[in-house]
Amino acid sequence: MTKRVSVVGAKGRMGATVVDAVENAPDTKLALALDAGDDLTQITPDNTDVAVEFTVPAASLGNVLTLIGQGVDVVVGTTGWTDEKLAQVREALADHPDVSVFIAPNFAISTVLAESFAAQAAKYFESVEIVEMHHPNKVDAPSGTAIHTAHAIAAARKAADMAPIPDNTQTDGGSRGQVVDGIHVHAVRLRGLNAHEEVLFGNPGEQLVLRADSFDRSSFMPGVLLAVRHAGDKPGEVTVGLDAYLDL
Ligand code: NAP
User: Which residue of 4, 125, 164, 173 could cross-link 201, Cys pair, CB 3.0 to 4.6 Å?
Assistant: First the structure.
């Protein structure tokens, strides 16, 4: 079935890439392409099956609540979601049990898989460190994705009752990186890079390296289209994270 997709934030970098992806996928069709200042109540079940929202954190919650009120499923890529904001979405969905909302902090399938594989590998290795590498325009460090990966690894190590990671460093002027949940996370900012993450696992005599590279915005589109195809699977619910659809 061809899904009619409206894009909110369509003039932005991600939104414009989504417009292209939706126009070029065999099973999706562009409905409306709206941006700041446009009236989102133009989006209705008569013209749209799924609305994809990539705007700014300050606007995203309001947009999602409007779209829920319009009765269309929503796929959200905008960052900045908190438990409080999610609670407001759940409250709105209680009045619209036929509508679903999906939110992914990261739509890159390689990154989501790398994190899942890292959590799986964690209990088998004494040592683990994360190196995330990004373009120098990024304002936060370490990346949200690296922090999320560190928490996932730490949870797996804790569940396996593992000893702390061995490290005999006596002097550290910062070169050992930030410690997130017991895991050292290093951030590199280098012109020419986009978004890259390595998880290094070590044991006596062996090493495993998991690496995910997002070279450009097209890396997010297979994940966005996957979410669009699954939109409506869980009416009345908000689903967070692409792993929900990756059969892991
Ligand atoms: P961007 O280029 O600044 O685009 C945002 C667009 O949204 C702009 O065209 C902006 O218009 C528009 N906008 C602002 N307020 C709006 C409103 N109330 N209603 C409708 N449109 C509105 O940003 P981007 O690089 O595309 O990133 C968008 C978001 O996606 C960010 O939060 C970013 O962190 C996130 N992101 C997520 C992923 C992921 O995998 N989940 C990947 C990359 C980026 P004006 O410029 O006129 O204000």
Answer: 125
